[in-house]
Amino acid sequence: MRNAAPVWDLVEARKAPLIALSDAVWAVPELNFTEFRSVALHADALRAEGFRVTPAVGGLPTAVMGEAGEGGPVIAFLGEYDALPGLSQEAGLTRHQPVPGDGNGHACGHNLLGSASLLAATAVKDWLAATGTPGRVRYYGCPAEEGGAGKGFMVRAGVFDDVDAAISWHPYAFATVFPPAALANIRLDFTFTGRAAHAAAAPHLGRSALDAAELMNVGVNYLREHMLPSSRIHYAYQDAGGAAPNVVQSRTVIRYTVRAAELDDMLALAQRVRRVAEGAALMTETTVTCQVVSGMANLLGNPPLEAAMQANLERLGPPPFDESDRAFARDMQATFNPEDIAAALRQVGLPADTDRPLCDAILPYPSPAGPILLGSTDVGDVSWVVPTVQALGATCAIGTTLHSWQMTAQGKSSVAHKGMVHVAKVMAATATDILSDPALLDRAKRDHADRLRRQPYVSPMPPDTHPPIQACP
User: Fold this and answer.
1) Is 161 exposed, middle or buried (0-12, 13-18, 19+ CB in 10 A)?
2) How many CB atoms are closer than 10 A to CB 47?
3) How many angstroms separate the CA atoms of 38 and 55, rounded?
4) In the predicted structure, residue 2 carries a pLDDT above the cut 70
5) Does 374 have pLDDT greater than 70?
6) Angstrom distance (rounded) from CA 265 to CA 83
7) For residue range 14-57, what is the model confidence (pLDDT) as tens digits?
8) Rounded CA gap, 202 and 416, in Å?
9) What would the pLDDT profile of 274-303 be if each residue is shown by its tens digit?
10) What is the 3-state secondary structure (H, E, C) of the chain?
11) How far is CA 46 from each of CA 11, 125, 136, rounded to the nearest angstrom?
């Protein structure tokens, strides 16, 4: 804690170029494993800040690693910069107005995520140099968090094997410690193959792959009654077999995402889904193959690091939002359903009728309302191989739904910029605590080892699952 104020000053000193980086990445939204412009911007920023840069870390062309310092523990900051399809939006507008072009948008705030992590890493680099403290700080630019499991492939490649602790964050409407409640998941492509036929003249000769997929959906719907309440199953057709209803469809591809709170529960549920697919193929006299597309482990908690991060949040206080920020947030809230705002407040234990447009206090941790479930993240795989802690940073109006045009619209706002600087200070101070307090790092490592003894890590992705790497355009 004694190092917090000096490292906060170092964050302030370097915030301008990293805010500019965030805005530059916002302007070039790129999807999973195609983040070539975004990773180039991050690599340039790392070089400008004096890091030793390793491109294509882990064999991923759109990953990058920068390192500074010598000896001592290795602290990793995890960054992301991938966007989402179909969620483009003009910045700063409180009405829906997509940007002309390919339709991608930073609707999960990953332009902020990577930039704030790099800002924190830069401040820690400068702190190490100023204090002569032994230690190394790394920034990992990680691609394809949005379902692509970029960090999972990096874990499998061993790029975190010599890291002592990892720190990250995610944009949100409130400032607190990110609870270890993200769901393990796996994405499975089921390809049904049948036999084409004229649907009127010779339907008896056909074997419908589309029928098989439909029967699979029915079977999975019945399965939902017999799985844990925290588990989730979603699906989307990748290839429905064609647009001609007078042809018996001979090939259909359907993608399933299976989620559960614990890794072993997710793997068991995925196996049950596979058996449903096999049954659907048997009923329709088709064949089915299953290919794992990607997978992510659940988050493994680390109470010693979470307590240290919460202490820094409480010492720093909420982000310094002003009246113009609150006015912008109120205008943005006018575009939400009232239920969105009420749900966001209830989720963190606040009364649903509270009138507040922005985060004005640090939430207690753990939350009295219970864990905040935010879907899945490939940070989970890192947390199984390295003691890991994350923050939630207040970068948007209360009630903002992630993966919405409103989140994209706020990505270059004063609210977003102040929130990313604020969370960078929290992360940087947590890192300096770890580097200057061997007992804290020892407690974090012992807690991590105890958890792994109870349940060893198993990658949800088999060895024959590979990232869909694309050539730089």
Assistant:
1) exposed
2) 12
3) 13
4) no
5) no
6) 29
7) 999 999 999 999 999 999 999 999 999 999 999 999 999 999 99
8) 61
9) 999 999 999 999 999 999 999 999 999 999
10) CCCHHHHHHHHHHHHHHHHHHHHHHHCCCCCCCCCHHHHHHHHHHHHHCCCEEEECHHHCCCCEEEEEEECCCEEEEEEECCCECCCCCCCCCCCCCCCCCCCCECCCCHHHHHHHHHHHHHHHHHHHHHHCCCEEEEEEEECCCCCCCHHHHHHHCCCCCCCCEEEEEEEECCEEECCCCCCEEEEEEEEEECECCECCCCHHHCECHHHHHHHHHHHHHHHHHHCCCCCEEEEEEEECCCCCCCECCCEEEEEEEEEECCHHHHHHHHHHHHHHHHHHHHHHCCEEEEEEEEEECCCCCCHHHHHHHHHHHHHHCCCCCCHHHHHHHHHHHCCCCHHHHHHHHHHCCCCCCCCCCCCCCECCCCCCCCCCCCCCCCHHHHHHHCCEEEEEEECCCCCCCCCCHHHHHCCCCHHHHHHHHHHHHHHHHHHHHHHHCHHHHHHHHHHHHHHHHHCCCCCCCCCCCCCCCCCCC
11) 15, 11, 15
Give the model's pLDDT for residue 83. 98
Name residue 198's beta-bridge partners. 247
Q: Give the distance, in angstroms, between the CA of residue 16 and the centroid of all CA atoms in the same chain.
A: 25
Cα-atom radius of gyration of the chain, to the nearest Å?
A: 23
> CB under 8 Å to 268, separation ≥6 — which residues?
none
Residue with tokens 């507040």: 356
Q: Cβ of 455: how many Cβ atoms within 10 Å?
A: 12
First to last CA, the chain: 46
Sign of CA dihedral 83, 406, 176, 456: negative
CB neighbourhood size of 442 (10 A) = 11
Q: Which two tokens stand for residue 267?
A: 């793997």
From 176, 178, 175, select the one nearest 167 (Cα to Cα): 178
177, 208, 309, 369, 455 from 364: Cα distances, Å = 9, 55, 12, 10, 29
* Tokens 């230690």 found at: 135
Question: For the chain, how many residues are written?
Answer: 473
Dump pLDDT digits (tens) for 314-347.
999 999 999 999 999 999 999 999 999 999 999 8
d(CA 298, CA 300): 6
User: With contact defined as beta carbons under 8 Å apart, do 33 and 144 qualify?
Assistant: yes
Angstrom CA distances, 100 to 48, 58, 104, stand at 32, 34, 10
Q: Distances from the Cα of 23 to the Cαs of 29, 217, 397, in angstroms?
A: 11, 42, 18
